[in-house]
Amino acid sequence: MTPARQTTPTVEILEAIAADRGLEIDRQRLETALEMHRKFRPELDMLRGVELSPIPPYIQPETAHRWIENGGRLP
Amino acid sequence: MSAELADFTICELLDAFRLRDASPTEAVAACLGRIQRLDDRVNAVITLLAERALDAAAESTRRWLDGTARPLEGIPFGLKDIIATAGIRSTGGSPMYADYVPEESATLARNLEAAGAVLLAKLQTFEFASGSNATTSNPWDLDRWPAGSSSGSAAAVAAYEMPLSVGTDTGGSIAIPAAFCGVVGLKATYGRVSRAGVFPLSWTLDHAGPLTRSAIDAAHALAAMAGYDPSDPTSGNVAVPDYVRSLRPLEGMRVGVPTEWFFDICAPEVTAAAHAAIELLAANGATIKEFDLPTTRTVQLHAIELTIVYAEVASLHEPNFSRIEGYGEEFQRLLTRAQFTSAVDYLKALRARHLLQLDFQRVFEDNDVVIVPGGVCVSPRHDHLVAKIGDEEMPLIDVVSRPTAVMDIVGLPAITIPAGFDDEGMPLGIQVAARPYDEISCLSVAHAYQQLTDYHSTMPSLVADDRNGTTAGVPELPPYLAKPVVTATRDRIW
Fold first, then answer.
1. Banded pLDDT at B4 (limits 50, 70, 90)
2. Does residue A29 surpass a pLDDT of 80?
């Protein structure tokens, strides 16, 4: 399978996302947010690359809490 | 004796009260005196509660005399200012809530006061426990960064202004200030200490716990703070043991040492201190076994931490986003970036936590505790916020939470303890972590280590100089005690 083309957002893309949510964010703030995102992106890509099973038994967000409450084991 | 009461640990104060060698009123006055003399330089205190504390101390003194003393009767303590206190300004470290006065106290604050502890002050914090903008100084060197976000909580204890404070930890906000300021910080298991009434940063990762000058003091404090709280939906319904009486000897304790992640980016002096501690534990009966963490090879833990914080902070502060200028600049940047976090990424981060938990499940099949660094470096200078790793300087914010955020992501209890000093006399810290709800193993190893070393009882020269300059006998009350003091007595700029 051909990997999807990866690109980083632009200020215009962030502006559109913000507008879609009804948020008014000035350009300077958007540029700062974009800079932070670009710096973070390689780590985020690694996280996105983690494969988690879609079939049972699958990990849910609550799994982590159950594990903690059960003393570090699943019930 | 009274002049030295500010130097006493919780255990020493309780003994002195029990033997009637000192009273809570004298202890509180001694701590107020220390604050008055040192805090203009340390800047750990946001709001001083002198009159309220003296009133409470008088009640504690009475209780010691009539035999109704509670477990922490008369122990002065401070709270990070993201912890709500009824009728007392609770700012969250934010200009947005500069004048916020809650109607109810946080459960953990109520628990401590119900145990007889005396609230002395609200303490400095980074805004909503995030960022790096400390106006507090490290008592070991006033030009140095105390870390945060529990900056005031760690500095107040390190400056011997009080024997107990409370901090919170989302990525290392108890552990790193404890390591940098040379005090003990106990981040309890996720859910062990109620966060009801605590300003949230990230409900998935936020923890609370005590900062003290010894492990056994932390055991006393946690016993008072911990417990199930129906008003916190993430509170664990798990019985609270008697931490002090349950401490175990080192003999036979199984100690795990990581072969990856924790020491990969770590200053040589911190690594050396950790390994020296491990050797000392081994020489005194502990068994040592190395372990690996395979998940750290494929998942960037920083990405898990940041993605969760971004999503949850954006959701929490959504009602105020149209007034974003009301926040501090650093928080404004965080909040703006946070708006662009996808739901899929957030859920991936939440689910990926469990992969790391499974790694630790395997680790704790063979080990009772693990020993890892408390910080990646020593406290940097305020004007040069970098992590110095050997000859290399790295961006502090990128690496500083590397050994600590793991504990928040997994939810493990972890105690940070002093483990030495670098060539410039700055503290070095290590963490002792255990399986969820096994704070007893953390405390046992930390306490045993402190029976073998004296790093935790070494005081900064700032405090030693103050102690030497203090006249023995009953101290004079600070001038501000001569007049009525209402709740918010001192304004500080964050």
1. confident
2. yes
Q: Which residues of A touch B357 (CB under 8 A)?
A: 64, 67-68, 72
pLDDT, tens digit, 9 for 90 and up, residues B36-70 = 999 999 999 999 999 999 999 999 999 999 999 99
Structure tokens at A36: 């932070």
How far, in Å, CA of B181 to CA of B426, rounded? 8
Residues contacting A39, CB < 8 A, separation 6+: none
Tokens representing B416 are: 């940070």
Instruction: Return the domain boundaries, chain A.
Output: 11-69
Is B149 one of the catalytic residues? yes
CB A38 within 8 A of CB B340: no
Inspect the interface and report whether the beta carbons of B360 and A72 lie closer than 8 Å: yes
B401 catalytically annotated: no
Q: Do B436 and A68 touch (CB under 8 A)?
A: yes
Rounded mean pLDDT of chain B? Answer: 93
Q: Please calculate the CA angle B158-B159-B161 and round it to the nearest 5 degrees.
A: 110
Instruction: Give helix A61-69 / helix B343-366 axis angle, nearest 10°.
Output: 30
> What is the separation, in whole angstroms, between the first and last Cα of chain B?
36
Backbone angles phi and psi of B188, in degrees to 5: -75, 170
Residues 6+ apart with CB under 8 A from A44: B300, B303, B307, B345
Q: What pLDDT, on a 0 to 100 scale, did the predictor assign at position A2?
A: 55
pLDDT confidence band for B341 (50 / 70 / 90) = very high
CATH of B2-489, one of 3.90.1300.10, 2.40.128.270, 2.115.10.20, 3.60.15.10: 3.90.1300.10
pLDDT (mean) for B328-339: 96
For residue B448, give the 3-state DSSP assignment: helix
Q: Above 50 in pLDDT, residue B453? A: yes
